[in-house]
Amino acid sequence: MARLFNAYVMVDWSAAAAPKTGKDSIWIGVLKRDVRFRLAFEAHNPATREEAMTLLRATFTELKRKGERVLVGVDFPLGFPAGTAKALQLKDPTWAGLWAFLAKDIVDKPNNLNNRFAVANKMNRLMTDAARPFWGAPPKDVQTWLSATKPDAVKGDLAQLREAEKACKAKSVWQLAGAGAVGGQALVGIPRVKALADEMAGAARIWPFETGWKALTEADLEGVQAVFAEVYPSLHNAKPEPGEVLDRAQVRATAEHFAKLDEQGKLGAAFGPGAAKADPAAIETEEGWILGA
């Protein structure tokens, strides 16, 4: 059975406000064919999101030149709980409207300085006019509509967790800081994924929003250069090699996992719901899903 992808790029993102390398920084794992057409892994640890974008663009350009399709996994939410776009009073009440909102409001400078807490504060004001649902600001970033601690739940508010997060026991996108928090990564990451996909001029697909929450076949991906998907590295048993940073081991293990599934002809099915019980309409229009959940 033919593989759906030739290369697998996994991205462990960071919302750091200053250049950073090593543990808890950006790690990009690239699993691609070498000159002998064997899969070979290489890891990169760019200090800033701008450097990461340059590296990703160069990787995608090389793969395009070789006519190779790539699966790009990012370890942050690509969607928000159902109803978020409507709560923000966006004209387009879908994932695309929310992505456009973030692309317009997020300022992320080349040195990593960014305004994610100010944007979370604004989103809370628009959604509830209170310090929720986003929370977890460091003391210096606490604002009128953004607190350091988790707010009490209020009846009628948006869900704390997406269906995919429930399935994986993952953290809420509303948590901005603390161990395992992904909210900040989503705020600064989504505009970057949007930029990369837009630059591919129709040859990229955002799963499951643009593909459907269904098993994918070669016919579904005809003319597609890249598929961007949300991944959750904790699902894959990463065992660091001697001296290897856990983040590096996680992007390596995640890339190897999906490459193995593809080799076995099982990756296409992973893009569908499998045994998951969730509303397909919500998954495809706003919440998204985690590949492999």
Explain what the structure shows:
This protein has about 290 residues and is of the alpha/beta class. It folds into 2 domains: about 170 residues, no CATH class; about 100 residues, no CATH class. About 35% of the residues lie in helices and about 10% in strands. It contains 9 helices and 6 strands, in the order βββαβαααααββααα. A 6-stranded mixed sheet has the order 3-2-1-4-6-5, with helices on both faces. α3 crosses α6. The chain is globular and about 60 Å long. The protein starts with 6 loop residues before the first strand and ends in a 6-residue tail after the last helix. The mean pLDDT is about 95.
Element-level helix/strand string: EEEHEHHHHHEEHHH
Shape: globular
Major sheet strand order: 3-2-1-4-6-5
Question: What proportion of the residues form beta strands (DSSP E)?
Answer: 5-15%
Rg, Cα atoms, Å: 18 Å
Structure annotation, total helices: 9
What proportion of the residues is helical, as a percent range?
A: 25-40%
Number of DSSP strand runs: 6
- List unreliable stretches of 5+ residues: none
Distance between the termini: 23 Å
Alpha-beta content class:
alpha/beta
The overall pLDDT, averaged over residues, is 96
Count up the domains.
Answer: 2
Largest sheet: 6 strands, mixed
